[in-house]
Write a structure and sequence with these properties.
This protein is an alpha/beta fold and 338 residues long. It folds into 2 domains: 125 residues, NAD(P)-binding Rossmann-like Domain (Rossmann fold), CATH 3.40.50.720; 156 residues, Dihydrodipicolinate Reductase, domain 2, CATH 3.30.360. The chain is built from 11 helices and 14 strands. Strands 3-2-1-4-5-7-6 form a 7-stranded parallel sheet, with helices on both faces. A 7-stranded mixed sheet has the order 9-10-8-11-14-13-12. Strand 2, helix 2 and strand 3 form a beta-alpha-beta unit. Helix 1 packs across helix 11 and helix 3 packs across helix 4. The relative contact order is 0.15.
Length: 338
């Protein structure tokens, strides 16, 4: 029997990426679509590319109604909004897969400092499972509240985890390049064509980006993080540098990464640095590790699609594990090329 799912926030980029993936997923039935300001509009008016593809109304976001009709609800909502609707959905017995930030941080004080508001329901934080399959796969089966990682923490963690887990690093430096879709669909100077085309910019400097505490929580070491907005629609490259705490050779590093991700079907360990285009439209991550033996520094690079592996695809991956479905069922793993 198919799992009945709903998508809240279908008018956003992460929401429509969820729609693309779930509409082709053989194990689910989409029974509800919801949005905020776009509620009441036909789906093909919000997304003309969906004309003739799905005949479902886009409803107002009503937590109890969604939870009553669905077995699982995917939330592609802004921070501060998800936490207000999650209790009502859970009360109806449905699982929640939250693509937003509200349940990623375990400490409500850290959340308040990062996002500038008190957490709306801190009592649910202990129940949330940080839904990075490459880190918490064993905790996902049966979970009812899944907190999907941010795109920057996903790419950074996949690049850095083998080094941190081996005790080779006590600090991680991560520089990430992100496509403009990561800024969301709402118009602002940050994502206007004339502002971003043929231009790149660093932002969230010196520990001020909201994803920094999320990275530090999951990696367990200090993270120096600098994101960059670059002129492409979707895609992400994380370049992670670590000064080694002890000597290790290049062959050992390569074997370490290959062994760490051998059982993780959405991660490909590469012999050379990956490009963002190699994973466009996929729920896969490509990672490469290189050693600077003279300086005792390791550089690991990870390429993901920020909307797929960094958001919707990862959410569906975690959902599959939570509901006992084949791990990669319905996941797009082949890139859109060129």
């Amino acid at each position: 029997m198919a799992v009945r799912v709903g998508i809240a926030g279908v008018s956003g980029y992460a929401g429509v990426e969820l729609l693309r993936i779930l509409a082709a997923h053989p194990g689910v039935e989409i029974v509800a679509l919801a949005a905020g300001g776009a509620a009441g509009l036909p789906l093909d008016e919000i997304w003309p590319g969906w004309t003739g593809r799905l005949d479902l109304p886009v409803e107002e976001l009503q937590a109890e109604a969604l939870g009553d009709r669905c077995d699982a609800v995917f939330l592609g909502l802004p921070h501060g909004v998800s936490a207000k609707v999650v209790p009502g959905i859970l009360a109806q017995g449905a699982a929640v897969i939250d693509l937003g930030a509200d349940f990623r941080l375990r400490d409500p004080a850290v959340y308040a400092a990062a996002y500038g508001l008190a957490h709306p329901c801190p009592e649910l934080l202990p129940e949330a499972v940080y839904a990075l399959p490459e880190l918490n796969r064993a905790r996902l089966p049966g979970a009812l509240l899944l907190a999907c990682p941010g795109c920057f923490p996903t790419a950074t963690a996949i690049a850095a985890l083998p080094l941190v887990e081996a005790g080779l690093a006590d600090m991680v430096v991560s520089d990430c390049l992100s496509g403009v879709s990561g800024a969301g669909r709402k118009a602002s100077p940050r994502n206007l064509y004339c502002e971003v085309q043929e231009s790149a910019v660093a932002y969230g400097l010196a520990g001020t980006h909201r994803h920094t505490p999320e990275m530090e929580q999951e990696l367990g070491v200090p993270v120096v993080f600098t994101p960059h907005l670059v002129p492409m629609v979707r895609g992400m490259i994380a370049t992670v540098k670590v000064r080694l705490l002890r000597k290790v050779d290049a062959a050992t590093l390569q074997a370490m990464y290959a062994d760490r991700y051998a059982d993780h079907l959405a991660v490909i360990v590469r012999d050379g640095p990956p490009a963002s285009g190699d994973v466009r439209g996929t729920a896969a991550a490509h990672v490469h590790v290189a050693l600077d033996a003279v300086r005792g520094v390791v550089t690991a690079t990870c390429a993901i699609d920020n909307l797929c592996k960094g958001a919707a695809g990862q959410a569906v991956h975690a959902f599959n594990l939570a509901f006992g479905l084949p791990e990669t069922q319905g996941l797009p793993l082949f890139p859109v090329l060129p």
